[in-house]
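Subject: sequence -> structure tokens, single chain

Hey, anyone have a minute? Need the predicted structure for the following. Not urgent.
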Amino acid sequence: MENYSYSCIKITMINFKSLNEETWPNLQSLFGDKGACGGCWCMYWRLAYKDYENGKGQRNQLKFFKLIQKGLPLGILAFKEDESIGWCSISPKRALVRLEKSRLFKTIEATPTWSITCLFINKNHRNMGLSVALIRAAAKYAFENGAVIIEAYPIIPKTTRIPAAFAWVGFINSFSKAGFEKKAQPSENRLIMQIER
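Reply:
Had a minute. Here:
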């Protein structure tokens, strides 16, 4: 991914970089000891349920790093100066084992699809417009790497205050602002949204 900058609503300038071995320490710093959420290390959709649960914590971290070493497209980081402040997971959907088998989010397009499955933002930089910037940057990254369609699976919030643990898939408004359109609503509070190249 070609590095570039983007102005957010309340943050002057943000730079984006793809995840690789060089930026891996930045992701580790952002995720902290808990691996973002409960030892996930962004492996939730990449493993069968049993393998994911058994690997929570250090094992999931090691598995994720091995994917980085293979040079696979995994996502992008947002930086304010030299500090990593945000993460967006985006990969070809076929690489996301549990997502491909999901009853709610089964593939609805014949065209090879990429998926945004997680947004994680440092608590000091939330509610500043960064999620929209991350989504746009992730889409740019995927299109540069051959994506034709990008999917996301945001929630439709029922209240104005959503605990961070439930916000990791993103919100409908953020994806709408980034140019995504509703394609399906598989449950009361979840959508499938897409953007095409």
